Amino acid sequence: MKTMNAGDFYRAVAEETGVSIAQTKAIFTAGLDVLKDALKRGDKVQFIGFGTFDVKKKAGGTKINPFTKKKMTVKACKVPTFKMSATLKSLLK
Predict the structure, then answer these.
(1) Average pLDDT over residues 3-9
(2) Does residue 91 surpass a pLDDT of 90?
(3) 17: Cα separation from own chain's centroid
(4) Is residue 15 over pLDDT 90?
């Protein structure tokens, strides 16, 4: 399995759209900034046919470290989540 890095991604999108790599990078970076701002506000971001980005709250409390078996206190936090669409799932079968 090959890992596609950001440069590979920008080149592929630029070829697909006929837009320059620099423009592709600028647009994609702006899109990620919009996505991050939406998640920071607690909004869901849904792309039909791809999936939904969301933020979930994880409860804090006392947890047990599975390696040391010691109890530790964990603060409540928010974590980003992604749920892929049925369309994307079917492509990956």
Answers:
(1) 96
(2) yes
(3) 23
(4) yes
HEC string of the chain?
Answer: CCCCCHHHHHHHHHHHHCCCHHHHHHHHHHHHHHHHHHHHHCCCEEECCCEEEEEEEECCEEEECCCCCCEEEECCEEEEEEEECHHHHHHCC
pLDDT tens sequence across 39-73: 999 999 999 999 999 999 999 999 999 999 999 99
User: CA–CA distance from 61 to each of 49, 54, 81 (Å)?
Assistant: 37, 23, 21
Residue type, 8: D
